[in-house]
Each structure stands twice: as C-alpha cells, then as structure tokens.
Amino acid sequence: xxxxxxxxxxxxxxxxxxxxxxxxxxxxxxxxxxxxxxxxxxxxxxxxxxxxxxxxxxxxxxxxxxxxxxxxxxxxxxxxxxxxxxxxxxxxxxxxxxxxxxxxxxxxxxxxxxxxxxxxxxxxxxxxxxxxxxxxxxxxxxxxxxxxxxxxxxxxxxxxxxxxxxxxxxxxxxxxxxxxxxxxxxxxxxxxxxxxxxxxxxxxxxxxxxxxxxxxxxxxxxxxxxxxxxxxxxxxxxxxxxxxxxxxxxxxxxxxxxxxxxxxxxxxxxxxxxxxxxxxxxxxxxxxxxxxxxxxxxxxxxxxxxxxxxxxxxxxxxxxxxxxxxxxxxxxxxxxxxxxxxxxxxxxxxxxxxxxxxxxxxxxxxxxxxxxxxxxxxxxxxxxxxxxxxxxxxxxxxxxxxxxxxxxxxxxxxxxxxxxxxxxxxxxxxxxxxxxxxxxxxxxxxxxxxxxxxxxxxxxxxxxxxxxxxxxxxxxxxxxxxxxxxxxxxxxxxxxxxxxxxxxxxxxxxxxxxxxxxxxxxxxxxxxxxxxxxxxxxxxxxxxxxxxxxxxxxxxxxxxxxxxxxxxxxxxxxxxxxxxxxxxxxxxxxxxxxxxxxxxxxxxxxxxxxxxxxxxxxxxxxxxxxxxxxxxxxxxxxxxxxxxxxxxxxxxxxxxxxxxxxxxxxxxxxxxxxxxxxxxxxxxxxxxxxxxxxxxxxxxxxxxxxxxxxxxxxxxxxxxxxxxxxxxxxxxxxxxxxxxxxxxxxxxxxxxxxxxxxxxxxxxxxxxxxxxxxxxxxxxxxxxxxxxxxxxxxxxxxxxxxxxxxxxxxxxxxxxxxxxxxxxxxxxxxxxxxxxxxxxxxxxxxxxxxxxxxxxxxxxxxxxxxxxxxxxxxxxxxxxxxxxxxxxxxxxxxxxxxxxxxxxxxxxxxxxxxxxxxxxxxxxxxxxxxxxxxxxxxxxxxxxxxxxxxxxxxxxxxxxxxxxxxxxxxx
Length: 971
Hints:
It contains 46 helices and twelve strands. It is mainly alpha-helical. InterPro entries: AAA+_ATPase, AAA_16, P-loop_NTPase, Sig_transdc_resp-reg_C-effctor, TPR-like_helical_dom_sf, Tscrpt_reg_LuxR_C, WH-like_DNA-bd_sf.
C-alpha cells in the first residue's frame, strides 16, 4: 500500500510498467537500495528521473512494502519547514501494517498512532511545524523536531520495510533538509531512500546563490545513479508507446538529445500540426517543444546564454573560438552550461549541445542585432574560408551579388569536400543573398539550392528553396526542377503530395526531358504510395522512352530499373532483359549513387534467386566505395541488403551487424526507419531474439503505415507473421499473414520469390485446422514458381506440403519428403531453412513413434543452427518441435493425433481455461473453440474437462507454446 501524496502507479500486465529504456537502470537501482539503502537519482530536467522513481516505488509496493512519496514544489525552497510539514502530514493520514502485528486487537496502526506515540515536547514541536499550534516568538524547538522526525521514521520502519522517495531535493527548503538529514542518519536500513535531484537547476539559475543545496546524506559513488538520455531506438519505442508518429524517431532523437519529455513534446507538436514528412526538419521549432527548450535554457544566466548563442551560431564551436570572438569567460560559461546539462565539452574544447532544439531556440529567440553581431564576430576569427563567407553572409540582411557569388563558390567547395549538408545550406544562402534585380540569377541559384538539398536529404531546405522560387516569375522548367527536388527528399512518405505531381506534369508540358523525369517520380509513387505496380510499370516505360528520345541516359537507366523491378514483381519473363538494358546504360553514364540503381537491383535479384554468393561478392565490392564516397541513403540501402543476404546465408552475426549499422545511419540521418527496422527484424529472427524481431517488425509496420508505404508494410507484416508462427502464436500469425496475402493481392503481386509469404501462410493454416485452404495456397503458388524457375520457393512449398501430409495422417510420406527437402536446402546454401525442415522432420518422426529418429533430426538441426550462430533457432531446436518438452509414452498414442492448434487448445483447457478465456488467448471465436474442443474430445475419447486433464497428465512435460504478441497485429 502507499503512504502519502503518492502518484498513481501505471501497472501493466504482469506487474508495474517499466519506463522505456529503463529496465537495466531499475535493476541497478534495486540492487543499490538493497545493498546500501540509499540512492540518488540525478540527471537533467525531463530525462525521466521521476518516472524511474515511480517504477521503483511500484516494485516496492508490489512486494508489500510501504511507500512514502514526498514531492517538493518550486515554492517550497522559500518556505521554512514546508517539505518536513508535508511529510509529517502525509504520515498522519496513512495506514501502516495489517493483522495482529500492528495495533491492539489486530487493528491496523494509523499514522495518528505513530504521532501520538511521540514524547510530549516532540508532539508539541510537530504541531507547531504543521501550524496546528502557534509558533512561539523564539521559533520551534529544532532539537525536538529533529528527534520527532527521526522517531516517526524509525517507528514506521520497525513495522515493515519502508521506501521513502524524495522527488525534487533541489527544491527542498534548508530547514526541512536539515531535519530530514538528521532523521535519515538515525533510521535503520529497513527505511530505504531514493532522492531525485535535478543538478544546477537552482544553483545556476538567475538570482541563485551560486551553490546547490546540501545533500541529504554524504553520497558514495555507488549511491549516485545518473539517468541517461534515451537512445534513438528507445525514442522510437517511446513514441510508439504514446501513439505518436514513429517515422520521425531519428530526427526527434536528434532534436531532443534523447530527453524523453522533450521528445514527446516534439512528437505531439508534430502530430498536432500534422506536419508533412518533407517538412520534418522544422519539427523541432514548434509549440510545446520550444517552451520546454526555453525552460531548460532558463537555468543559464544572461552571460552564459550569450556565450551559448555564439556556440549555436558557429559551425564548429569550441571554447577557444568563442573566447576569440569576444567572450573572455567562455571556458567558465561553458563549464557552467555543461553542469546544467545544456552542452558537452571534449578535452580539446569542442562544444556540442545536448539537444538540437537548444541551439535552434537560442538563435530563434535572439534578436537580429544579436545574431548579426555574433556572426560578424565569428567571421573575424574562423580559420576556414568557407565558414568565414558563411558568417559574413549571415551577418547582413542586405542582398549583394558579389557576396552571393562568394557564397555560391563556398557551396561548391563544401560539395567537393563531401559536406553535402553544408553545401545545401550555402547554396540556399547564396540564392537568398542575391539581389532582387538579379531575378534570373536568383532563380537559377534557387534551383541549384533545391537540388543540392535533395542530394543532402535536407527536406526543409528543399522546401524553402522551392517555396521562394514558386513565388516568383520562374520558367516552367525551373518550377519542375524545384518540385522534383522536394519529391526526392520525401523518402518513403509520398502520400499527400499529389498536388506537386500535378503541377510538375503541367509545367513539364513540351519539355521531353523534364516529362521523363516527372514520369520517373510517378512510377516510384505509384508502387510505394498507391500500391499499383501495373501503373508504375507503365509510367516507367513512358519515362524510359521519353528519356531515350532525347539522349538522357541517366533518367532512362533509372526508369528501366524501376520497370525491371515491376516486371519481376508482376511475374514477367522480361524482367532480366530490362534490367540488363538498365545496367548497360549505367555502365556508360556511371551514376554517383546506387540507391534505386540497376546495380543494387541486380544484387537484389540475386538475393531473390538465392544466388547468395553472387549477391555477397557484389555487395562487398560496392560497400567500401559507398562508405567512402556515397550518400548516407546509398550506405543504408547496401547495409539493409547485406543484412538480408547474410541472414539468408545463415551468417547471423554479420547480418545483425549490418542491420544495426543501417538503423544507426537511418536514425542519425533522420530518415524513415521502416526499412531499417524490417532488416533488423530479419536479422534478429535469424540470429538474435524472436521477441526483439517481433518488436522491430511491429515498429516497421507502424512506420510504414504512417508513411503510406505499401511495399514495406507487406514486408514488415511478413516478418512479424513469420516470427509469430515459429514461436507458436499461430492464431496471430494467421491473422498477420492474411493481411500480407490481402496486400500482395491488392498490388497484383505474382513472383513468389520477392516475399515468401505463401509457405508461411499455408503452415499457419495447417496449424489452425484449415489444411484444405493451405493446400489451395500451395496449389496456387507452385505453378507460378515452376514457370519462373524459383527452385527454392518450391523447396519451401515442399516443406509445408509435408506438414499437410502429416496433418492428414500420411506421416511416412511426410517424413520422406522432409528429409529430402532438408538435404536440398543444405545443397542450396540455406542452412536456416535446412534446420527448420529438420525440426519439422523431428515433429513428424515423433508422431510416427520413432523417438530415436526424431532425436537425430533435432540434433542435426541444433548443429546447423549452432554453426550459423542462429541463437533463437538453436533454443527452439533444444526443445521439442512444438515448444513442448519431450512427452512420456502414451498407451494408445491418441495425443499424437492432435494438430498443433488442437494441442495448444487442449493444454489451455486442461490447465483450467474456460472456453471464453481460451478464445481470448488464441484470438478465436467461442464457437470455433467449441468445435475444436469437440474434435479433441473425439480424438482422445474423453467426455469432460476432468478427463481431458487426466489424459494430458500422462504427458507431464507438456506446456503451451510461447506467445510473444501482446495483442493482434498492427493495423
């Protein structure tokens, strides 16, 4: 039970909810409290210290401990005794203990009993503290108050373990701090204490005394736990938990610095404003997020803020640079800001803000004169000519052609250095510095700026350049190029951009080359945003023909690549021929990037065909070049593809490494994380954790739905359904895979090698007592796979067809087919698929009562998985095939006749679940449960739940397969 002004606990299923990213910290905090009894949680405002304290209090309460919660207020610091009075008042209204241990006659003791048990002078002092009695002219008796508070806490701790949480130590008034410090010194270890402190919030604020409050105890190194910012991936999880858009997780993490409160404010501002994806770079400038940034900066004095403004204006801020720019106290100011959690300093004096919204807020709130003077000062001291030109241009608001030309030259220098983001910023600055009388020059520079922003994936700069250009009397060709730049920065999120496509088509009338470029973008949109590959192929054909007619080999190659992708998707035999044409044009044109190019599609075709050695060799040749000179999107594309190839090859550690690098680059660049999460789901399925794989697949599905990306929505749902199936969550697996089936049919997908959902759906149908529907799925895909020569797709169909035979009582045929299929998977270089077939073989051999053969199959599977580093599959092979322990022999073998779905239901009902509870657990209707239970009774020749439980008890090791999902699939 809780005592005092204790916030409500938000408990989840199975216990109190753990704040996102804080499980390890909570475990450490628990250990510290049980070892030493004292812990100090510290960290910047908004990092989640109170959430951690709430969670540890919930754990204590769940163990039956009493919790005292003391939350101070900002006004308490100036009110003598305020915090101590609040603590005493909360004890007075509490009830502690239960049963005969406590009060006379077995009644629970109340806080009033504790207070009444104090000696007379102490009771009188407490009454004065709580203003229940007048305070004499000389003030209250401090010694009596000290002893009273110590006595109260000792009495509580003697009755049962007590956890005292003091939230906001820095706001506690000195008198209360002195009383509590004395009391804690005298209390036993049964009273454990968590103090929550935001350092420097008082010490360095305006008008502060310059020193922080004294601690409640002398903390040791073990007592102090810093609550760190969340990682980018944890920010994504936090956004999903709060039903906020997760597709911006990387940019929100960068803007918030991992501060949960700030991240949620940014996410809510984004959701409330319904900011389009291509405006995402500006998301940190809105509403509540800006106010929170001002609160964080509010702890800095005006002098410190002046130093921080110079750091915000500089490209590469350092203490020495800021000192030379006119701030002689730069080192002291920056050290103060670091203690307040606003910046971090390296040994060489480099300065980095802890959250991206802080420098943007400093610049936003500064007046023009302050910004101009700061840039002018920096221009005089920087040693890089590119930075010097940038600061000179930003120090004036008077357009000047000579200056604009210098900035344009600086943009070219930044481009040659490979700093595409700076090049994009300078290109736009050059355009904005161009005088209005130079109309044509300004428009030309705006076009260059938009296209430079597209190369740098800076959507905000592309939109700014395009908006400026479209407000002027620009030629249709320039308007088209600006709009195409905006489209090229939209990433996966191409929904709600129809107006841009329409205007681009109108303005490209009569210009064949531009019309080809617009048609190319439409081809991409039709497949990603509209899920219409037929229309996408038609647009790609038009684009290629138009580009070839004017000798534009670059656009023609890209259009042919899109067409080849659609041809394969639609099952056309022309796919490889078209891809070869695109590749030939690329060899002449030699494009700078690989994303959406023929080279990467050639690798993906090798992946689809399971020519994994070829795919790996080509990737290994490209990766060093892209890492050295390519764009971040190129690197992400290659790492994603490499992760898929290595996971398929059974090189699980390499797959996890590549997928992790892809996600890190994605979040750092602020791009949509859906594709990277999908790759990580595949890698985790192969060699990490099924639970993490399911989590990443769900995140990918949510991000893809937010983006309106049909392609990756199908892929992520496939990854989720596959994990659900192999972990025994067959009901959810069937629902998820049916969504994949519906989505692929809606997109007219034909080639089964690009997303191998057919075999997974068929297996889920067999597990859910729908073998004939499973046979129909296999019968539908097999002729297509044979026509297209997709041999390993046919192997997957054979594996599932064997399960169909086994479900129909033809175990002998099933065993022969599975053994042959496992061998052929091994010959095809697909070790994980071989191991999966061997697990299925072990299951069938057990049904045939061939225990030795089953054990040999399982051992062979375990060997395959161990060599590949496939940890989750190895754990699966270490158990029996259905996730159950090895059963004891049965007299009639009737249990062997149950399907996996029937066995799962039988186990639930045998353990006492009602029909309604079983239906809810399995996501079935009650009628389906009743019908399935009738078949189970018939097969086992039992007539009641009691007899069913008795039949199951003969197999003591049986248990239901694990269910990872916490609800139906994303949708």
